[in-house]
Structures are given as structure tokens and as C-alpha cells.
Amino acid sequence: MHRSIVCLVMVCVLAATPSMAEQRGRTTTRKPAPAPKPVPKIEPADVTCPEQLGTGLKTKQLFCFVLAGRDPSEGVIIRLPPHTQATVTFDLHNRHTYSEEEVRAGRGFARYTAVIGVLTMTGTLLGRGAVQNEFRTARDLYDRITGGAGPGGTKAVAPLGREQVSVDVPGNVDQISLLGELLESTTSAGREVATPGRPVAIVSNVQVEYVPAPVKKR
């Protein structure tokens, strides 16, 4: 009786175990590996200035005037590489005309507020940037510009202060424009406001961070 039970158990085990041929015939389906996330790139932007101020003595950056106006084609043009999403950053400065004589005479104080717009080439507003500063001494200047007749070969006009501006750009926009909107300044020469074609602010260090658009297959 005991031997019969053992034989019955062995038969059941053998019946439940798949043959080697069955095991070899089975295939394991692996899930495809997830596609790698695109890595954003950061690089200097392709910039066209309607009017250049010059190169900074300390920063070695190129400084551009942002002119007042409404036509995007007349602004600071920034071209973007093909992208699915992008963010443009730049440094915004006020424009100050430095005079050592006025500073020594106690008439060097100045106050500036400038606002610029970031637009598509069709005039759609993507964002704004603003910078507000006061000038009292040469230490307040952000940088001096080479190529002038001043001390050390610098220009009298210089960038004052620094405000970093960041604007998101849609994937279907390959160019944007910076245009001056508002200028409020109080200097020894009096009060000044923005008029079309006149410098409102200064921009430098334009960078673009973007996710490259996928290459289209032919």
C-alpha cells in the first residue's frame, strides 16, 4: 500500500513538470527600454544688435543697446536653433553717461528705470524685463566699454546695474526681438523718457537653453 502511494505521487510530479522541449520552446518577452530623455543644451545665442555699445573691459561681453520702438525687425534680434522648448536668458542694464567732472562737482547722482519687451517677429509679447538703479560713484557701474577716449581707453557711456531676465520661447518660434518700452531717468541734464529709436537699456550675455527638436526623417 505504501509503495502504491509513492508511485502515485511520482506520477503526478512528472505530469506537472514541463518537458525540456517545452521549456526550450518558450520565449521571454522583454519590455522595450524607455527612450532616453532629451538633454537640454546651453549655449550663447545668435544675436544681431541694431546698435552696439561695445565690449566690456572687465566681462569681455558684447553690450547692445535696446532701442525704443514697436517694430520687432528694428529690435535686438535673437535667433534660436530648432527646439521643442527653449528659454532665453540675458543681463539687462541701465544706460549711464559717466562724467568724472560731474561726480567731483557733486552732480553725479542719477536714477534710472527701464522696461523692455520680448516679442516674436509677428509682435506677440512673450515677456518683459525691467531694471532700476541709481548712480553715485564709478563703483556703481557694472562695466566700462573699450574703444573710447576716456581713462584707459574707455567710453563715457557704460552699463549700470544688472538684472537677469528669463523668457520661455515656444517651439514654433525661431526668432525673438527685444524692444524698449519705458524709460524714466533723472540726471543732471534733467528728466528723460523713451522716444522711438532712442536707447532705453543695454543687454549682454544672451544665452539660450533648449531641447533640440528631433531630426525629421526623409
Q: What can you tell me about this protein's structure?
A:
The protein is mainly beta and 218 residues long. It has a single domain (43-212), classed as Jelly Rolls, CATH 2.60.120. It contains three helices and twelve strands. Strands 1, 3, 4, 6, 9 and 12 form a six-stranded antiparallel beta sheet that branches. Residues 5-14 have low confidence and may be disordered.
Summarize the structure.
With 218 residues, the protein is mainly beta. The protein has a single domain, classed as Jelly Rolls (Sandwich), CATH 2.60.120. Strands 1, 3, 4, 6, 9 and 12 form a six-stranded antiparallel β-sheet that branches. Strands 2, 5, 7, 8, 10 and 11 form a six-stranded antiparallel β-sheet that branches.
Query: Remind me, CATH topology?
Result: Jelly Rolls
| Net shape | elongated
Q: What is the residue-mean pLDDT, rounded to a whole number? A: 87
Helix content: 10-25%
Largest sheet: 6 strands, antiparallel
Q: Number of domains in the coordinates?
A: 1
Uncertain ranges: 5-14
